[in-house]
C-alpha cells in the first residue's frame, strides 16, 4: 500500500510482514508508529520501506526512543540480501530492554586448520549449530576472528581472518553475541549510514554487526552506550571504507580494573577505515584493525582505572605488519598502540613486508598511576626474523603523571623478537618527554668527551635508540672544540667510524690516527635509511 499524499492514521493497520506500507509524504517514525500502534513495529516497517521504494533516502526516527526486546535482523525485515544505494537511519534512540533473546549462543567443536587454506576450518563437528557471526576462540587464535560463513554438507567454516598458530586438529569455541542492529544477513551492503542515533545496550547486548561485504558503512554523531560485548563488529569485509565520525563509545565496564575488561568498541578487517573525532571511554580496546590504509585522526580514547600501579591494555591493535596507517592528533590516554601480526597463518618473516608503513604524528600520549614498565608503543612479532622498515614517530607529547615510566617503546618478545640488524627507515624525532626517565631518539646526537688521550673513543648513545636497537649508521662526526695529543699538539684528522661495537652492538667507535683527547658530537642511528 502506497500513500502519495500526507496521511494521518486513526486506528491501526494490519498487514502481513511480507507486505509494505509506503508513506511517501510523511516518511518518519511518528507516522509508522501511529499506523501500527507500536514504535518497534513502526521502526521495522519503516526500515522495510526504506530499503524498497519510498522516494526517501532517510528514515527519521522523529527523535523518539524505541524499546527493543530482541536483535533486529535488518536483512530479514527488508527482504534484501544485496543493496548498494545510499540509505540512512537517523535521529532517535534504540534501547535494549530485558529479554532472554539477548543471551549469547556458545558452541564448542573439534575442527582442523591448515595454513595452506588459511580462511577455512575443515572437519568441523556440529557445524550446523555454529552461528554465522560467532567469534572464534581457542589456542592459536588471534583477537577478533569471526565465522563468516559455513557449509553444513562439507563440514567447513569460513573465517574472517587467518589463525596464527592453530595448525592441526583441536577444539574451538564459537560465541555468537547479539546485536541491536544486525546486518550480517546481507551478502553485500554499501553506502548505508547511521546518524544522530543513540544505541543504548544497557549491558544486555552489543550494538551493530556489519554485513558480510560492502563499502563505506558510516556512523556519524552517534552514541553507543554500554555494549555488553562489542560496539561495532565486522565479520567479513563489510567494513571496507568504514567511516566512524564524531561518535561516543561508552563502556559498560568503566568501574572494572583495566585488565579485567573484555568489551571492544570496534573491529575492522577491511581496508580504508577512517576513525575521526571519536570519544571512547574505558573499553578493553578501542579498535582492533586487520586492514590497511587506516586513518585515525582526532580521537580521544582513554582506558585508565582507579587502581594504583595499574595494568593497561592496548587502545589500538594493528594486526598487519604493513598497515599503511596514520595516527594523527589523537589523545591516547592510559593505553598503548600494539602492533602485531596475530592474523597471519605463517607469522615467521619470509621475504614479505615486515613491520612498516606506520606514522604516529602529533598525538598526546598520557598515562597515570602505572608501573614504570608501562610503554606507549609496543611491537609484538608472533614469529621470528621480523624487523622494522618504515616507522615515523614525530611531534608527539609523551607524559606520565603520578610516577615516571622508564621509556615509551618496547618489543614484546613473548613469541619472538626483532632482527635489529635489519632496521630501516625508523624515525623517532621531535617528540616531547615528561615523566619519562629515558627519552627515545633516532637519529640521536651524542656529545662525547674524551679527557684521557686515546686512539679509540667509544661513543655510547644506546639508551636513546628505540626498541633496544643497534648502532647501524653514523651520519656525522663533528669535533666540538680542539682535539689535541699527549704533547698538546692540535690535530685536524677525521676519525674512522666503527659501527656495532660492544656486546649489544649499540655503540660506535671513533678511531684516530694517534691518541688524542677532546670532545665530539656524533649523530648515530639504529637503522639504515634509504
Structure characterization notes:
With 530 residues, this protein is mostly beta strands. It has 3 helices and 47 strands. The chain has a 19-stranded parallel sheet that branches. The chain has a 10-stranded parallel sheet with strand order 4-13-16-20-24-27-30-33-36-39. Strands 9-12-7-8-11-10 form a 6-stranded antiparallel sheet, with no helix packed on it. Strand 10 (147-151) and strand 11 form a beta hairpin. The radius of gyration is 28 Å and the shape is elongated. The mean pLDDT is 97.
- The gyration radius over C-alpha positions equals 28 Å
Which ranges are low-confidence, i.e. pLDDT below 50, for 5 or more consecutive residues? Answer: none
> How many runs of DSSP E, i.e. beta strands?
47
Structural class: mainly beta
Quaternary state reads single chain
Count of individual helical segments: 3
Task: Briefly summarize what is shown.
Helices cover 5% and strands 44% of the residues. With 530 residues, the chain is mostly beta strands.
Structural descriptors:
530 residues; ten-stranded parallel beta sheet; 47 strands; 19-stranded parallel beta sheet; mainly beta
Give the SSE map.
Layout (H helix, E strand, L loop, with lengths): L1 E2 L18 E2 L5 H8 L2 H12 L7 E11 L3 E2 H5 L3 E2 L3 E10 L8 E9 L6 E3 L12 E3 L9 E5 L4 E4 L8 E9 L2 E4 L5 E2 L2 E9 L5 E4 L3 E3 L2 E3 L2 E3 L4 E4 L3 E4 L2 E3 L2 E3 L13 E5 L5 E3 L2 E3 L3 E5 L5 E3 L2 E3 L11 E5 L6 E4 L2 E3 L2 E5 L17 E4 L2 E5 L8 E4 L8 E6 L2 E5 L7 E3 L12 E6 L2 E3 L9 E17 L12 E7 L3 E3 L4 E2 L4 E6 L5 E19 L5
Parallel strand pairs: 1-2, 3-6, 4-13, 5-14, 6-15, 13-16, 15-18, 15-19, 16-20, 17-21, 18-22, 19-23, 20-24, 22-25, 23-26, 24-27, 25-28, 26-29, 27-30, 28-31, 29-32, 30-33, 31-34, 32-35, 33-36, 34-37, 35-38, 36-39, 37-40, 38-41
Antiparallel strand pairs: 7-8, 7-12, 8-11, 9-12, 10-11, 42-47, 43-47, 44-45, 44-47, 46-47
